Amino acid sequence: MTLARTRLAALATSILAILLIAAGQPAWSQVKEAPLPAAFAKAAAAHDVPRDLLVALAYAETHLDGHNGEPSASGGYGVMHLVSNPTNHALEQAAELTGLKTDQLKTDDEANILGGAAVLRAHADKLGLDEAARKDPGRWYPAVAAYGNTTSPELARLYADAVYEGLGLGIDTRGVQVKPQEVTAQRGDLAKARDLSAQAAVASPDYPPAAWVAASSSNYRVSSRETSYNIDRVVIHVTQGSYAGTISWFQNASAQVSAHYVVKSSNGAITQMVRDKDVAWHAGNSTYNNRSIGIEHEGFVNDASWFTDAMYRSSAALTRALCDKYGIPKTRTGIIGHNEVPGATHTDPGSHWNWTTYMNYVTGGGGTPSWTTTVDNSTSGQFTASANWGTSTYSSQRQGPDYRFAETVAASDPAWWSATIPSAGNYQVEVWYPADAGYNSSAPYIVATSSGNQTVYVDQRSGGGAWRSIGTFALNAGTANVVGVSRWTSGTGLVIADAVRISKL
Length: 505
Description:
It catalyses: Hydrolyzes the link between N-acetylmuramoyl residues and L-amino acid residues in certain cell-wall glycopeptides. Pfam families: Amidase_2, Golvesin_C. Keywords: Cell wall biogenesis/degradation, Hydrolase. It comes from Nonomuraea insulae. The protein is of the alpha+beta class. It has helices at residues 2-22, 27-33, 35-47, 51-62, 90-98, 102-107, 109-126, 141-148, 153-169, 243-250, 286-291, 309-326, 355-363, and strands at 76-77, 82-85, 88-89, 171-173, 176-178, 211-212, 220-221, 233-238, 261-263, 270-272, 279-280, 292-297, 335-337, 371-376, 383-384, 390-392, 403-406, 415-421, 425-432, 443-449, 452-458, 468-475, 478-485, 495-497, 499-504. The strands form 7 sheets. A 6-stranded mixed beta sheet has the order 6-10-9-12-8-13, sandwiched between helices. The chain has a 5-stranded antiparallel beta sheet with strand order 15-18-23-20-21. Helix 7 packs across helix 8 (141-148) and helix 9 packs antiparallel against helix 10 (243-250). The longest helix is centred in the N-terminal third of the chain and has 21 residues, at 2-22.
């Protein structure tokens, strides 16, 4: 009887495979596609971690790419970036918590995700999150920050904010989806930490649009360039890690590496870590270190998804400024990849880096959008809001003379920015708002796309006083309300309406 059942099961399996192939759906390809979403669901259930939060953490670290078990620059492995270095032993902790071998955690996606969930849950337990608290993704903020193992409260906030930004903007990659959602991130003591995303936090001594976070003095050499050496090169790097993780690594005395600047993928934010006059250890060649400025770009060389237009434009503006300041040729002689340094063992920026686009932006032959418009809340005839929206000049981070604010309510009552879109196509939408601890933790921005309204949630408590991209959208031609911000949100704090910028790509 058992043998008969086995044969019947085998026959049924064979018939199913034949039917799937005949229908144009290869059976084994479906088996290969399923594991990543299933792994997140399994790990989240096993360790009582919110599934979407687990995905957002992995996305902020690796864009859900395990990189074939190869380590990041700081020694992190797999989709969940389980780190093993002198100051962070998350990989070993995951092995202890799950009973899995470290080699398996490095190379197997399902094991790695399970290990990441276990480590995150351990941080939550240490912080005292009970069963009820674990149901609210916002309550996990300190645990997420602890997972990043950064070197300071400001970097812990930067790291955790990137994860929660993924929840607000939504994620759709490698077969895994997270819909944009309202989450009130409860920062706790980290709410007092300096917000490195905000314009008010900028303190770069050499490039004002950048924030300043000093690298460990063990990771660079103090110098007096351009007296001691002429600066005649810009070297382009890829971090092989996340933005916050790279900044933290350069602050780690055991790293023995650094770069002058680090650029963020999603919005092009820049942090300076070594003064231009000093010698950063980035090129692997002392002569080139002495004569060059190193710029690191968040991401991994084998994954093109990190190299966004916002990153290219922001980095190109920095490179252009450096070339103007130090007389560096705006050519591929003066601007080189790490792989072009004599004796280089690194391959970055790699084949996915678009040198044509980048150099066009550096030289100005494409550095600006083909069309752009900025609409402020004070722009005549292009901003509408009900009488429920007040007017304020409280924050110096505002765009224009003032901005609008409103209490949350269980009704949309949106403020709208209108624009005349010149032609149907893809447009980048950026928003500007002043940030404050009393402003909304999950403000719903509405974009009227050609396929219907899309909503993106933005935490207006941080990242203010600067243009912040909320995505690229297909828009119809014509004059209409294009971007709105609604009062209908479960987020806490006043909803702010200040300005938007729409650019044709």
